[in-house]
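Posting this for the archive.
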Amino acid sequence: MAFGNRDFNVGTDDDVMNEINMTPMVDIMLVLLIIFIITIPVMKHSVNIDLPRASNEAQNIKPETIRLSVNAQGAYFLNETQVADADLAPRLKLAATQNPQPELHIRGDKNVRYERVAQAMAAAQQAGLRKIGFVTEPKN
């Protein structure tokens, strides 16, 4: 590669070229391209991982799930059996002592006063239940 000023007064064949020779740079780029083409598939498949599969099936209710329902009149039902207000807290405390601790699914009628659902949530929290969820119907 040579740089310089061309002397127009001298008419010799040994004139200096003032252009950059691109051939070595193109060769280097082609060599790098070949290296990347060879190494990228090796890097991409270097770690084999068995990824989990997810499905959008309906959730199966496990036996360790407690269902607390509140009907429109405000009555409590624990696993489809009616429970008096005074008996709700001791039964929730008994469930909280189980190992592993069960989940509590609260189903409240849409016409029930929010106060009744809030009282059930407070009783569950005071009993020590950590996993509390609400069950709703999907919108059509």
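The longest strand covers residues 65-70. Residues 65-134 form a domain with the Nucleotidyltransferase; domain 5 fold (CATH 3.30.420.270).
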